[in-house]
Design brief:
single chain; globular; ten-stranded mixed sheet; 3 helices
Length: 221
Amino acid sequence: MLSTTTTTTDFATVTDAALSKAKEHYSATDFKPSGKSKGAALYVKHVADTAMPVTKGEITFVGFAPEQVLAKLLDLDTRKEWDKGFEGAEFLERFDEESGIVHSKQEGALFVSGRDFSIAYRVYREDGFIISLQTSIEDERASPIPGRVRGHLTVAAWFLKKVDNGTEVVYITHVNPSGTVPGAVLRLVAGETPAITGCLYDVMRKKNDREKEQRPLKTNP
């Protein structure tokens, strides 16, 4: 059951609104290809009056079930393995295993200060999808950090769908880094953000391969 005393805004209202935005982007047909990385197809969609475009990464995690991918997404202790911009996060509140509020930190780039975010995260299961969603939320416990700029995450959503050979993964993000950020850095971030889909698959695949190699061979009696 969700707490009613942990945040200055309504958790369910904020996350449901972000889910609606994520679904709109998922169904949109105006994304433009922006490249490929580690097997993932990358896309961007420019939005009026925002410096950062909406980004999308698509890839199939062959041999992995949606719940396996979700477990890795929710494991903040190992996120640095596949998201190099992630510096860490502090849990402000955990409502259950799949929802809560965190205060996260992202590394800076070039001469740009690092960012921090007050984030609500929540997992939805509907229409054959598992959707792991994050969005900014106001919380007085997420105090400003000296030397950092508070960013605003409009939405970050992982759409996981079971397919015959594994899990179809679509990762959609739209973030306002706030403050002054050079165009070159914005373009860099717009490319790196959706590319973490391929990074995550690469990490999971290599770990799975290592575990297979370490298993003792079965011998006939």
